[in-house]
Design brief:
3 helices; 56 residues; binds zinc ion; mainly alpha
Length: 56
């Protein structure tokens, strides 16, 4: 449940820009060497949920 609170905070500004460049924020592996299709799906799902929550 504390993850939900954190998500709201992160959305404000902190998106770890440097990490996102090289390391996947979902599996913490190099984006250049691993297939992150699942990760991007996860990310999209989370984004959709986040938006749905805000629109309520
Ligand atoms: Zn990944």
């Amino acid at each position: 449940m504390k993850a939900l609170r954190r998500t709201v905070k992160i959305r404000g500004a902190l998106m770890r820009p440097q990490d996102l460049q090289t390391i996947c924020d979902k599996c913490d592996r190099s984006r250049a060497h691993v297939n992150h299709t699942e990760c991007s799906k996860l990310r999209q799902t989370e984004a959709a949920e986040r938006r749905a929550r805000e629109n309520i």
